[in-house]
Amino acid sequence: LWDKIHADRNDMLSQVALCLVLCRCQHRYRRHAHWEQPKGSHMFLLPYLDELSRYMQSAKPDMCTAGDLHDPMNMKPMKKGMNILTTSRRIHDMIDPLKCNGSHDHQPIEGMTRWQGCGIARSVFSERYPRKFARLVAKGILKKQFPPEIPFGHIVILR
Length: 159
Prior knowledge:
Shape: globular
Low-confidence stretches: none
Structural class: alpha+beta
Oligomer: single chain
Order of helices and strands: HEHEHEHEEHH
Largest sheet: 3 strands, antiparallel
Strand order of the largest sheet: 1-3-2
Number of helices: 6
Distance between the termini: 41 Å
Strand content: 5-15%
């Protein structure tokens, strides 16, 4: 299993490199970029992604608070922590405080649930952005256009 996980990670490195190039391009043209990973992901620890910390900030909301994510069968909140890198201070400041305050029990993401009459793995169900979170981010993106917001940080281009 360990070998399979690492082989899959190696296969994805070209996609990670593409995302890094897109972030550089967006920053070069003074446009915003946002990059999301689940809380437990080690992707942002890759050495060649170190430069992202110079021009992106990390927001770490929990979906039980930020998106009202809950199991559709028993309605228990599902925590699902996120790590979202963004060049937008407004987006960062809007979503980073949305952490779980621990006032409720969480439904573990493991196992199965029922959604729209079908059985589905909770891990698959939780991959979708909850409507509340998607609307919040969309409103933040629309707000940042008026007045225009300059991306955070800087990038050094070696030639």
